[in-house]
Amino acid sequence: MDLPWWQKAVFYQIYPRSFADGNGDGIGDFQGILAKLDYLKHLGIDAIWLSPHYPSPLFDCGYDVADYCSVAPEYGTLELFEQFLEEAHRRDLRVILDLVLNHTSDQHPWFLESRSSRDHPRRDWYIWRDGKNGGPPNNWYSTFGGSAWEYDPATDQYYYHFFFKQQPDLNWRNPEVKAAMWDAVRFWLKMGVDGFRLDAVGTIFEVEDLRGQKAPVSHDELLVMSYKAKTREEQAQTERLWHSMFKYQVDLPEVHDLMKELRRVVDEFPGRVLVGETEDIRFYGNGRDELHLNFNFPLMETRRITPAWVRRNQRRRLSRLPDGAWPCNTLGNHDSPRMLSRFGDGEHDREIARVNLALILTLKGTPFLYNGEEIGMSDYLFTDVSKFRDQLGIFYYNLLKSHPDLVDPEEAALIAARGGRDKCRTPLQWENTVNAGFSPEGVEPWLPVNPDYAQGVNVADQEADQGSLLNFYRTMLRIRRENPALMAGEYEPLGTDAACLSFLRIAEEQTLLVVLNMSEKKRRLNLKVPGQMELVFSSHRSQGTEMVFEPFEVFLAELRGVPENQA
Ligand code: GLC
């Protein structure tokens, strides 16, 4: 079956600041990435998603872009970027960039001009409004807390920001904004970039009449409520409140016309891909006219991935996708806990990580991996608040400090470390040496390095160890490449066992049975599968297809001689 490359590819997200420090200044850069391309090739991934590499004052770690057509000086130059792109392509690795459409940095020249006077031609590139009754234009919140409006005394108006006030929202109803941004898109596509991951697509439009939201609680109160919510009902209630609070600021219908327009721009260049940071399947459009991929985030929104959870997720997700739409699965990124910490049980974390990787690589859809997960990097909950770099962590810390009734002040730093995102952005651990080999001795990396690099959580040690998680990643990635059913096959669930997830992947040229024992118990299954079985891979045995599965076993068998009507 001839699938486009992005349906067959495994993507790997590089967080440039933390991936590899090539010039030894404590910050990752393109020189570093270039030096690790062979590592990535050998790992067996096919495409790289690069988190923002643009010049930025870094208020939101790069998601506050100050120039869409350039490279942050601490990461390198445009020439170096081109060299990286060429070297990646030479190794058959595709590269997609992060595209932040909703907002720019408040230091972007467009915004500096826009704020300079009410009659500047770029005034209307952002969302400026008069205040009301001595306050902001309405009662909308920023998702990161506080009002969504920032007063600008120089021109006596407020501007709108869905995220931090250092990230003013662009006015996408202004055609000049579109034209400027599509220019930036074409700039990279002409250079040969293979597509974009679209940041926060749901937030691009807000209702024009600015009608006020009616949530009966404040943003701070709702944060506290969400923190306290333990039962399902309490959680559902806080979700409803969040929805009502932001209902006029997210997921407006206009965004789909805009995405269709962007798709047409991208389609001017053959073979490119758009991936939305959204779980909303409406962004697939009719399956061919909007975004190529949207993340199946619901899959990762749980404490422990169980067979029942996956079956329900797949049933819901796959049945709702429009014709022609292709699924996309992930278990972690730079905004969420690391998969090892999130889904682990504290006892079998590494076994669970293996099964979860196998899950992502065997389900139907394009998998996205996050840098460092291949060596089992975990959340590093450092509590020295002076080292926090994520403003969200700092915001939580200050909020918690003002609620001594809720948490001990000492606990505040730990909870803020958990709520913030630095924990999953710490430098990649390359070796068992000072700074985990990320930066040279005597240089302080931009975020603290997780000391567990000394306990085997580093690339060099794991390369040398056949049984390591890293080598398991390599093996599983190879198995995926070698078995067409894992890419092209339809997904068909088998059975309802509580411990083992079993399903078929059925393609024209191959039918595979996948069994993942997600539990710490040995398990006998009574699966009725069509045809003869031949072992393709097991994490625990070298032969045999007996239906008895070891704890956390990953098992793949090919079914031969499957009657036509059953495949
Ligand atoms: C996206 C990014 C996140 C960022 C936010 C605002 O959710 O993934 O890191 O803070 O958008 O740009």
Structure, briefly:
This protein is an alpha/beta fold.
Overview of the molecule:
This protein is an alpha/beta fold. 31% of the residues lie in helices and 14% in strands. The chain has 18 helices and 18 strands. The protein has helices at 5-8, 16-19, 30-35, 37-43, 78-90, 109-116, 175-191, 219-228, 232-246, 254-267, 307-320, 339-343, 349-362, 391-401, 409-419, 459-463, 469-482, 484-488; strands at 11-14, 47-50, 94-100, 128-129, 149-152, 157-160, 195-199, 273-276, 293-294, 328-330, 366-370, 490-494, 500-506, 511-517, 523-524, 532-538, 548-549, 554-560. The strands form four sheets. Strands 9-8-7-3-2-1-11-10 form an eight-stranded parallel sheet. Strands 12-13-14-18-16 form a five-stranded antiparallel sheet. Strands 4-6-5 form a three-stranded antiparallel sheet, with no helix packed on it. Helix 5 (78-90) links the parallel strand 2 and strand 3. Helix 14 runs antiparallel to helix 15. The longest helix has 17 residues, at 175-191. It starts with a helix and ends in a 7-residue tail after the last strand. The relative contact order is 0.10. The model has no long low-confidence stretch (mean pLDDT 96). The structure holds alpha-D-glucopyranose.
Provide the fold topology.
Blueprint: H1 5-8, E1 11-14, H2 16-19, H3 30-35, H4 37-43, E2 47-50, H5 78-90, E3 94-100, H6 109-116, E4 128-129, E5 149-152, E6 157-160, H7 175-191, E7 195-199, H8 219-228, H9 232-246, H10 254-267, E8 273-276, E9 293-294, H11 307-320, E10 328-330, H12 339-343, H13 349-362, E11 366-370, H14 391-401, H15 409-419, H16 459-463, H17 469-482, H18 484-488, E12 490-494, E13 500-506, E14 511-517, E15 523-524, E16 532-538, E17 548-549, E18 554-560
Bound molecules: alpha-D-glucopyranose (GLC).
Alpha-D-glucopyranose (GLC) is lined by residues 60, 63, 100, 163, 199-200, 277, 334-335.
